[in-house]
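User: Good morning. I'm curious how nicotinamide-adenine-dinucleotide would be positioned relative to this chain. Could you predict the structure with it bound?
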Amino acid sequence: MKALVKRHATPGLWLEDVPEPEPGPNDVLIRIDRTGICGTDLHIYNWDAWAQKTIPVPLVIGHEFVGEVVAAGPNVGGFHRGDLVSGEGHITCGYCRHCLAGQRHLCPRTQGVGVNRPGAFAEYLSIPASNVWKHAPGIDRDVAAIFDPFGNAVHTALSFPVLGEDVLITGAGPIGLMALAVVRRASARYIAVTDVNPHRLELAKKMGATLAIDVRSRTLADAQKELGLLEGFDVGLEMSGNPQAFRDMLANMAHGGRIAMLGIPEKEVAIDWNTVIFNMLTIKGIYGREMYETWYKMSELIQTGLDISPVITHRFRFDEFEQGFAVMKSGLSGKVILNWR
Ligand code: NAD
Ligand code: ZN
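Assistant: Good morning! Here's the predicted structure, ligand included:
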């Protein structure tokens, strides 16, 4: 089968013929239809410090996908040939305290599809049935292909109640934009979104931000004034990974404010802990999605009309992947889809 392989420990990806995966007794074999390119894939492509210490070479990469079930191992029930599915890319151990308690997203022994084990940028993928998510009939396939990052957005956005609250989202990348759609749907009052990329701030406006702020020219204090906030933002969603964005967020939260942190900083970040203490802030780290509460919420949100499609800006065939990665690198994109059919 065709697959995008990290073949060499140097920048780039290689389109190659590799053997089809053989599903084990508990696995489902999926014929990939479409995949999304994640920032993680870009790190792997660029072969940065994180990728060098994380990715075993060679490896088929990719973890955002939708496809159809073609086969299942003898222990698998509940899936049928032709089912339209995506997958939770965090494969958990199954025997730790958290896995046993049904809190699989807290498993300390998670293996990542397309990061630690073969991924979805391929014509076929085999993963454990316990990681396969069956879509409701009629779902748009591009939307289904990005359920993984949509799940990051839903998990982060619903970490704290936002009904009637004023929400600050730092970073209007694909995940920040989808989180914006979710907090709007969850009836936040005002939603301010920041970025340093005008293209993405335009998308934020299109997706319903009350204010889209370019922090190169305006401060969050300006934003508070314009919105008429008296005490600061109630809920913060950090989705940029940028240290200054996080520091600015901390300084602009209301007392008792709550922050969910998804963005991954490149290295250690120093903050003024006095602000956290004296303003009595809560900071919650977010990794992945809740298995499977988040997935239920995602399906329900889409089925009841939440539209995340504006975040998808580019579509390419799998053999045009270089173009897909180039547009991701340029920053002039939202989500980029690769079509495998
Ligand atoms: P992305 O890189 O496309 O988006 C980040 C955005 O932040 C960009 O648009 C960038 O211009 C913007 N930004 C940069 N500096 C800023 C500043 N000072 N203020 C405000 N915005 C600024 O990434 P994404 O795919 O949307 O993911 C968002 C973040 O979440 C990334 O850091 C990513 O690594 C991380 N992530 C975390 C998890 C997890 O499980 N914790 C999962 C996926 C992604
Ligand atoms: Zn576990």
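The radius of gyration is 20 Å. The first strand starts at residue 2 and ends at 6.
Let me know if you'd like a different ligand tried.
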